[in-house]
Amino acid sequence: xxxxxxxxxxxxxxxxxxxxxxxxxxxxxxxxxxxxxxxxxxxxxxxxxxxxxxxxxxxxxxxxxxxxxxxxxxxxxxxxxxxxxxxxxxxxxxxxxxxxxxxxxxxxxxxxxxxxxxxxxxxxxxxxxxxxxxxxxxxxxxxxxxxxxxxxxxxxxxxxxxxxxxxxxxxxxxxxxxxxxxxxxxxxxxxxxxxxxxxxxxxxxxxxxxxxxxxxxxxxxxxxxxxxxxxxxxxxxxxxxxxxxxxxxxxxxxxxxxxxxxxxxxxxxxxxxxxxxxxxxxxxxxxxxxxxxxxxxxxxxxxxxxxxxxxxxxxxxxxxxxxxxxxxxxxxxxxxxxxxxxxxxxxxxxxxxxxxxxxxxxxxxxxxxxxxxxxx
Length: 376
Description:
By secondary structure, the chain is of the alpha+beta class. It is built from eleven helices and twelve strands. It has helices at about 5-15, 25-30, 55-60, 65-70, 80-90, 135-180, 185-215, 225-235, 260-275, 280, 345-350; strands at about 40-45, 50-55, 95-105, 110-120, 125-135, 220, 240-245, 255, 285-300, 305-315, 355-365, 365-375.
């Protein structure tokens, strides 16, 4: 047989060969796209041994990828039998995909509740497992509600403020004209009440419209300069009985943003916390902590970010009342008598203009407001 014939035979042989087994290929190259996903993904052999684990799964387990790959994946669950049964069903083609809830063991952490989605791969003898942390799913649902709520609030505030502002000017003007026609001092006191209340409402309307009127001035922002500015303002107003602690990660890089808006957002949150600490301030036991951290491979606002700023404002006060926990970012909702209920609404608006989000976790004795902002 000449060389050409040998080559043709070799080509035909290659074309007729069945796809290589999963174990014969390089998982790292075939499945590297899974590293871009926020969900936890593992690719298993039919016998349950891990061929590939993505970066999110590696982070969740707290174990290196090398230690995960080559191990029976069922060993990472509190109840291995459920996965083993699912793998057996996949092997006998009882289903194309299977879903169930389970608990994933983690190194030096409590087990993580997850929703398991098991599906057969395109290659025989290979199964793809997707794990959706139930905590993460609940958080994403909460974030979606917050974003939708913030957008609704924005439209409501703008429309309501404009509807109030137009007749308000007429009321104030009419009261002034009426006052000019009066000689009685007692009657003028009534017109002064009208003018004063109209001015108070005008101030409220201006505050409602402020985030939408003011231009977004972007520059380089050092978050610790923002924190120090807010810290000095809080200590100037509450010089006794309140300790404001710093807990900074100085490696956080500068990012593009509106410095004044971020100062105002952080100040609103810190000021609310300080006011909630009134009793502890009187006892000289009040504590407020400003903490900065970097979150890696985190998802919020329906997007995944390689790096994000985590800015915490933590206080040891009584906590957010249960009656308003789900509504604290609503306009005009306040847990303090005499409060305007605008501080947190404006803070959320300013942070969202930086593509970020504010979350709140509160129990008696500890309230943590967390600001999340993408980093470059």
